[in-house]
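Friendly challenge for the regulars: who can give me the structure tokens for this chain first? No prize, just bragging rights.
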Amino acid sequence: MIDYSPFWETLKKSNESTYTLINKHHISSSTIDKLRKNKPLNTTTLNDLCRILDCDIQEICRYIPSDTDQSL
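First reply, four minutes later:
Bragging rights claimed.
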């Protein structure tokens, strides 16, 4: 499972907010909702968040092994 809890900590430490992400940087409110609910995001969105927040990917998300992960 991909967990976005690091994103919320990174956001708190930054000069940004969900308001500025949506209104200044044009991140959709549905993307913010996906972050809240640990739903899948595409890598372009992750790249944008890293650029906006000037951070590394591990400051946005982390992988947590789960029994409900899809198997190939």
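The two ends are 15 Å apart (CA to CA). The CA atoms of residues 34 and 40 lie 7 Å apart. Your move, everyone else.
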